[in-house]
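W.,

You were right to be curious about this one. When I first looked at the sequence I had no strong expectations either way, so I just let the prediction run and decided to look at it fresh. Below is the sequence, 327 residues in total, followed by the output.
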Amino acid sequence: MHRPVQRLSRILACAAVPVILVAAGCSSGSDDDGAAKDDAKQSAAAGSGKSAGTSGSASPDTTATATVRAKYAKLPEPCAALGAKTLKALVPAAKDKKGSQGSSDDLDARGTCSWNSLDSNGVHGSQYRWLSLALVRFDSDATLGTGDERAASYLAKQVTATRATADAKSLKSEKVTGLGDEATAVTYELKKKEGDFKQQTLLVRTANAVLTLDYNGAGLAGEKDPDPAKLLKDAERAAGDAVAAIATANGGATTGSGDASKGASDAPKKGDDDKKQDKSSASPSPSGSASASKSSEKDTSDKDGADKDSSAKDSSGKDTSTEQTAG
Protein backbone atom coordinates (compact mmCIF):
# COMPACT_ATOMS: atom_id res chain seq x y z
CA MET A 1 0.00 0.00 0.00
CA HIS A 2 2.83 2.44 0.71
CA ARG A 3 4.87 1.68 -2.38
CA PRO A 4 2.31 2.89 -4.94
CA VAL A 5 1.83 6.09 -3.00
CA GLN A 6 5.53 6.76 -2.86
CA ARG A 7 5.91 5.96 -6.57
CA LEU A 8 3.02 8.32 -7.41
CA SER A 9 4.65 11.08 -5.33
CA ARG A 10 7.88 10.64 -7.19
CA ILE A 11 6.14 10.78 -10.56
CA LEU A 12 4.30 13.96 -9.62
CA ALA A 13 7.53 15.54 -8.33
CA CYS A 14 9.39 14.71 -11.54
CA ALA A 15 6.52 15.99 -13.62
CA ALA A 16 6.54 19.31 -11.73
CA VAL A 17 10.22 19.97 -12.39
CA PRO A 18 9.87 20.60 -16.17
CA VAL A 19 6.89 22.84 -15.55
CA ILE A 20 8.92 24.99 -13.16
CA LEU A 21 11.85 25.05 -15.56
CA VAL A 22 9.61 26.06 -18.47
CA ALA A 23 7.96 28.80 -16.37
CA ALA A 24 11.33 30.08 -15.26
CA GLY A 25 12.57 30.05 -18.84
CA CYS A 26 9.58 32.08 -20.05
CA SER A 27 9.93 34.58 -17.22
CA SER A 28 13.65 35.03 -17.89
CA GLY A 29 13.06 35.51 -21.61
CA SER A 30 10.42 38.16 -20.95
CA ASP A 31 12.76 40.13 -18.63
CA ASP A 32 15.62 39.95 -21.12
CA ASP A 33 13.41 41.18 -23.94
CA GLY A 34 12.20 44.10 -21.81
CA ALA A 35 15.73 45.06 -20.83
CA ALA A 36 16.83 44.82 -24.45
CA LYS A 37 13.99 47.10 -25.49
CA ASP A 38 14.89 49.61 -22.75
CA ASP A 39 18.54 49.53 -23.83
CA ALA A 40 17.47 50.15 -27.42
CA LYS A 41 15.33 53.10 -26.36
CA GLN A 42 18.18 54.60 -24.35
CA SER A 43 20.62 54.17 -27.23
CA ALA A 44 18.20 55.79 -29.66
CA ALA A 45 17.59 58.67 -27.25
CA ALA A 46 21.30 59.21 -26.78
CA GLY A 47 21.86 59.27 -30.54
CA SER A 48 19.09 61.84 -31.10
CA GLY A 49 20.12 64.10 -28.20
CA LYS A 50 17.09 63.18 -26.06
CA SER A 51 17.26 61.96 -22.49
CA ALA A 52 15.62 58.65 -21.64
CA GLY A 53 12.09 59.03 -20.39
CA THR A 54 11.84 62.64 -21.62
CA SER A 55 9.66 63.61 -24.55
CA GLY A 56 10.57 66.48 -26.89
CA SER A 57 13.94 68.07 -27.57
CA ALA A 58 15.91 69.93 -24.91
CA SER A 59 17.14 73.28 -26.31
CA PRO A 60 20.61 74.37 -25.15
CA ASP A 61 20.74 77.26 -22.70
CA THR A 62 22.66 79.84 -24.69
CA THR A 63 22.67 83.63 -24.39
CA ALA A 64 23.63 85.85 -27.32
CA THR A 65 24.84 89.37 -26.75
CA ALA A 66 23.38 91.60 -29.43
CA THR A 67 25.40 94.67 -30.31
CA VAL A 68 23.42 97.54 -31.80
CA ARG A 69 25.22 99.11 -34.74
CA ALA A 70 26.05 102.75 -34.07
CA LYS A 71 24.00 105.28 -36.01
CA TYR A 72 26.87 107.37 -37.35
CA ALA A 73 29.79 105.68 -39.11
CA LYS A 74 31.87 108.81 -39.75
CA LEU A 75 32.31 112.49 -38.95
CA PRO A 76 32.45 115.55 -41.19
CA GLU A 77 35.69 117.46 -41.61
CA PRO A 78 35.72 119.71 -38.51
CA CYS A 79 36.76 122.86 -40.38
CA ALA A 80 33.92 122.35 -42.87
CA ALA A 81 31.24 121.59 -40.27
CA LEU A 82 30.18 125.22 -39.78
CA GLY A 83 28.42 127.29 -42.42
CA ALA A 84 30.10 130.28 -44.08
CA LYS A 85 27.42 132.69 -42.81
CA THR A 86 27.82 131.37 -39.27
CA LEU A 87 31.58 131.85 -39.37
CA LYS A 88 31.20 135.36 -40.74
CA ALA A 89 28.87 136.24 -37.86
CA LEU A 90 30.97 134.64 -35.08
CA VAL A 91 34.53 135.36 -36.25
CA PRO A 92 34.16 138.27 -38.71
CA ALA A 93 37.85 139.18 -38.76
CA ALA A 94 39.31 135.66 -38.73
CA LYS A 95 42.88 135.47 -40.00
CA ASP A 96 42.13 132.14 -41.68
CA LYS A 97 38.47 131.75 -42.55
CA LYS A 98 39.04 128.06 -43.32
CA GLY A 99 40.15 127.50 -39.75
CA SER A 100 43.11 125.75 -38.21
CA GLN A 101 42.59 121.97 -38.11
CA GLY A 102 44.09 119.99 -35.26
CA SER A 103 46.03 116.79 -35.82
CA SER A 104 44.12 113.50 -35.84
CA ASP A 105 45.04 109.96 -36.85
CA ASP A 106 41.43 109.21 -37.83
CA LEU A 107 39.07 112.03 -38.81
CA ASP A 108 36.14 109.59 -38.86
CA ALA A 109 36.65 109.09 -35.12
CA ARG A 110 37.76 112.53 -33.89
CA GLY A 111 38.74 115.96 -35.15
CA THR A 112 39.13 119.61 -34.09
CA CYS A 113 39.22 123.02 -35.72
CA SER A 114 39.60 126.58 -34.37
CA TRP A 115 39.29 130.17 -35.57
CA ASN A 116 40.74 133.45 -34.19
CA SER A 117 39.26 136.86 -34.90
CA LEU A 118 40.60 140.28 -33.87
CA ASP A 119 38.46 143.14 -35.11
CA SER A 120 40.58 146.24 -34.48
CA ASN A 121 38.99 149.67 -34.11
CA GLY A 122 42.26 151.52 -33.76
CA VAL A 123 42.47 153.74 -30.68
CA HIS A 124 38.98 152.65 -29.68
CA GLY A 125 40.15 149.13 -28.95
CA SER A 126 39.39 145.77 -30.49
CA GLN A 127 36.86 142.98 -30.31
CA TYR A 128 38.42 139.57 -29.88
CA ARG A 129 36.69 136.25 -30.66
CA TRP A 130 37.87 132.68 -30.43
CA LEU A 131 35.88 129.71 -31.74
CA SER A 132 36.74 126.02 -31.40
CA LEU A 133 34.93 122.84 -32.45
CA ALA A 134 35.83 119.30 -31.33
CA LEU A 135 34.08 116.19 -32.69
CA VAL A 136 34.26 112.66 -31.26
CA ARG A 137 32.46 109.52 -32.44
CA PHE A 138 31.98 106.16 -30.69
CA ASP A 139 31.27 102.73 -32.15
CA SER A 140 29.22 100.07 -30.41
CA ASP A 141 31.21 97.48 -28.47
CA ALA A 142 29.92 94.23 -26.97
CA THR A 143 31.93 94.87 -23.81
CA LEU A 144 31.84 98.67 -23.49
CA GLY A 145 28.25 99.26 -24.62
CA THR A 146 26.42 100.78 -27.57
CA GLY A 147 27.74 103.82 -29.38
CA ASP A 148 25.02 105.99 -27.85
CA GLU A 149 25.81 104.78 -24.33
CA ARG A 150 29.52 105.40 -24.73
CA ALA A 151 28.86 108.86 -26.17
CA ALA A 152 26.52 109.72 -23.29
CA SER A 153 29.16 108.66 -20.76
CA TYR A 154 31.81 110.76 -22.49
CA LEU A 155 29.48 113.77 -22.60
CA ALA A 156 28.84 113.55 -18.86
CA LYS A 157 32.59 113.51 -18.16
CA GLN A 158 33.14 116.51 -20.44
CA VAL A 159 30.42 118.49 -18.69
CA THR A 160 31.96 117.72 -15.31
CA ALA A 161 35.43 118.73 -16.50
CA THR A 162 34.15 122.00 -17.96
CA ARG A 163 32.35 122.89 -14.75
CA ALA A 164 35.66 122.42 -12.93
CA THR A 165 37.53 124.97 -15.07
CA ALA A 166 40.13 126.73 -12.96
CA ASP A 167 39.65 130.45 -12.19
CA ALA A 168 36.15 130.45 -13.69
CA LYS A 169 33.95 133.28 -12.39
CA SER A 170 30.15 133.50 -12.39
CA LEU A 171 29.91 129.94 -13.71
CA LYS A 172 26.48 128.74 -14.83
CA SER A 173 25.38 125.39 -16.26
CA GLU A 174 22.05 124.61 -17.87
CA LYS A 175 20.41 122.13 -20.22
CA VAL A 176 19.74 123.25 -23.78
CA THR A 177 16.82 121.98 -25.86
CA GLY A 178 16.69 121.64 -29.63
CA LEU A 179 20.28 120.46 -30.06
CA GLY A 180 20.83 116.78 -30.81
CA ASP A 181 19.69 114.24 -28.24
CA GLU A 182 21.04 116.12 -25.21
CA ALA A 183 23.00 119.31 -24.70
CA THR A 184 24.44 121.39 -21.87
CA ALA A 185 25.68 124.97 -21.89
CA VAL A 186 28.39 126.02 -19.43
CA THR A 187 29.12 129.76 -19.26
CA TYR A 188 31.63 131.68 -17.16
CA GLU A 189 34.13 134.56 -17.13
CA LEU A 190 37.90 134.46 -17.16
CA LYS A 191 39.83 137.51 -16.04
CA LYS A 192 43.17 137.97 -17.80
CA LYS A 193 45.59 140.83 -18.17
CA GLU A 194 44.27 141.52 -21.69
CA GLY A 195 40.67 141.78 -20.49
CA ASP A 196 37.62 139.93 -19.22
CA PHE A 197 36.80 136.99 -21.46
CA LYS A 198 33.21 135.73 -21.69
CA GLN A 199 33.29 131.97 -22.25
CA GLN A 200 30.46 129.91 -23.74
CA THR A 201 30.89 126.12 -23.95
CA LEU A 202 28.24 123.91 -25.56
CA LEU A 203 28.49 120.15 -25.12
CA VAL A 204 26.12 118.23 -27.38
CA ARG A 205 25.43 114.56 -28.05
CA THR A 206 23.71 113.43 -31.23
CA ALA A 207 23.34 109.64 -31.20
CA ASN A 208 26.89 108.20 -30.95
CA ALA A 209 28.71 111.49 -31.65
CA VAL A 210 29.68 114.28 -29.24
CA LEU A 211 30.64 117.82 -30.14
CA THR A 212 32.21 120.43 -27.89
CA LEU A 213 31.93 123.99 -29.09
CA ASP A 214 33.86 126.74 -27.30
CA TYR A 215 33.21 130.39 -28.09
CA ASN A 216 34.59 133.30 -26.15
CA GLY A 217 34.94 137.02 -26.66
CA ALA A 218 36.41 140.09 -25.03
CA GLY A 219 36.63 143.83 -25.54
CA LEU A 220 40.32 144.78 -25.56
CA ALA A 221 42.12 148.11 -25.09
CA GLY A 222 39.07 149.91 -23.76
CA GLU A 223 36.50 148.32 -26.09
CA LYS A 224 33.18 147.33 -24.53
CA ASP A 225 32.85 143.70 -23.44
CA PRO A 226 30.50 141.56 -25.56
CA ASP A 227 27.08 140.52 -24.29
CA PRO A 228 27.28 136.92 -22.91
CA ALA A 229 23.67 136.21 -23.92
CA LYS A 230 24.47 137.20 -27.52
CA LEU A 231 27.60 135.04 -27.49
CA LEU A 232 25.61 132.04 -26.23
CA LYS A 233 22.98 132.49 -28.92
CA ASP A 234 25.70 132.59 -31.58
CA ALA A 235 27.33 129.49 -30.05
CA GLU A 236 24.03 127.59 -30.25
CA ARG A 237 23.76 128.55 -33.91
CA ALA A 238 27.21 127.13 -34.60
CA ALA A 239 26.44 123.95 -32.65
CA GLY A 240 23.30 123.50 -34.73
CA ASP A 241 25.42 123.66 -37.89
CA ALA A 242 27.76 121.00 -36.51
CA VAL A 243 24.92 118.64 -35.56
CA ALA A 244 23.47 119.01 -39.05
CA ALA A 245 26.88 118.40 -40.63
CA ILE A 246 27.26 115.10 -38.74
CA ALA A 247 23.91 113.86 -40.04
CA THR A 248 24.65 115.04 -43.59
CA ALA A 249 28.04 113.29 -43.59
CA ASN A 250 26.17 110.04 -42.91
CA GLY A 251 23.53 110.52 -45.59
CA GLY A 252 20.88 112.31 -43.52
CA ALA A 253 19.31 115.42 -45.01
CA THR A 254 18.73 118.16 -42.43
CA THR A 255 17.80 121.82 -42.35
CA GLY A 256 20.52 122.80 -39.89
CA SER A 257 17.97 123.52 -37.18
CA GLY A 258 20.04 121.70 -34.56
CA ASP A 259 17.84 118.60 -34.47
CA ALA A 260 19.88 116.74 -37.02
CA SER A 261 19.75 113.47 -35.12
CA LYS A 262 16.30 112.78 -36.54
CA GLY A 263 17.24 113.25 -40.16
CA ALA A 264 19.59 110.32 -40.60
CA SER A 265 17.43 107.68 -38.93
CA ASP A 266 14.09 108.11 -40.72
CA ALA A 267 12.75 104.65 -41.52
CA PRO A 268 11.75 104.00 -45.17
CA LYS A 269 8.07 104.47 -45.90
CA LYS A 270 5.83 101.49 -46.30
CA GLY A 271 5.03 102.46 -49.89
CA ASP A 272 8.70 102.40 -50.75
CA ASP A 273 9.08 98.91 -49.30
CA ASP A 274 6.07 97.68 -51.29
CA LYS A 275 7.54 99.06 -54.51
CA LYS A 276 10.87 97.38 -53.83
CA GLN A 277 9.14 94.06 -53.17
CA ASP A 278 7.08 94.33 -56.36
CA LYS A 279 10.20 94.99 -58.43
CA SER A 280 11.99 92.10 -56.76
CA SER A 281 9.11 89.71 -57.52
CA ALA A 282 8.80 90.89 -61.12
CA SER A 283 12.45 90.27 -62.01
CA PRO A 284 13.85 87.28 -60.13
CA SER A 285 16.81 86.93 -62.52
CA PRO A 286 19.91 85.05 -61.30
CA SER A 287 22.17 87.91 -62.31
CA GLY A 288 20.15 90.37 -60.28
CA SER A 289 20.29 88.16 -57.20
CA ALA A 290 24.02 87.70 -57.55
CA SER A 291 24.58 91.44 -57.84
CA ALA A 292 22.50 92.16 -54.77
CA SER A 293 24.39 89.51 -52.82
CA LYS A 294 27.77 90.96 -53.81
CA SER A 295 26.62 94.47 -52.91
CA SER A 296 25.39 93.29 -49.51
CA GLU A 297 28.66 91.50 -48.79
CA LYS A 298 30.66 94.61 -49.78
CA ASP A 299 28.55 96.90 -47.55
CA THR A 300 28.93 94.55 -44.60
CA SER A 301 32.67 94.31 -45.13
CA ASP A 302 33.05 98.09 -45.37
CA LYS A 303 31.02 98.68 -42.21
CA ASP A 304 32.89 96.03 -40.24
CA GLY A 305 36.17 97.60 -41.32
CA ALA A 306 35.05 101.04 -40.17
CA ASP A 307 33.97 99.62 -36.81
CA LYS A 308 37.32 97.90 -36.28
CA ASP A 309 39.30 101.03 -37.18
CA SER A 310 37.22 103.31 -34.96
CA SER A 311 37.22 100.83 -32.06
CA ALA A 312 41.00 100.69 -32.25
CA LYS A 313 41.20 104.45 -32.00
CA ASP A 314 38.68 104.56 -29.13
CA SER A 315 40.62 101.99 -27.16
CA SER A 316 43.93 103.85 -27.62
CA GLY A 317 43.15 105.94 -24.50
CA LYS A 318 43.56 109.35 -26.13
CA ASP A 319 41.80 112.21 -24.40
CA THR A 320 39.94 114.56 -26.74
CA SER A 321 39.01 117.13 -24.16
CA THR A 322 38.58 120.57 -25.70
CA GLU A 323 41.38 122.99 -24.82
CA GLN A 324 40.21 125.89 -22.73
CA THR A 325 42.19 128.79 -24.14
CA ALA A 326 41.32 132.35 -24.82
CA GLY A 327 43.54 134.04 -27.34
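Here's what jumped out at me. DSSP finds six helices and seven strands in the chain. And, maybe more interesting for your project: The first helix runs from residue 2 to 48.

Coffee later to discuss?

I.
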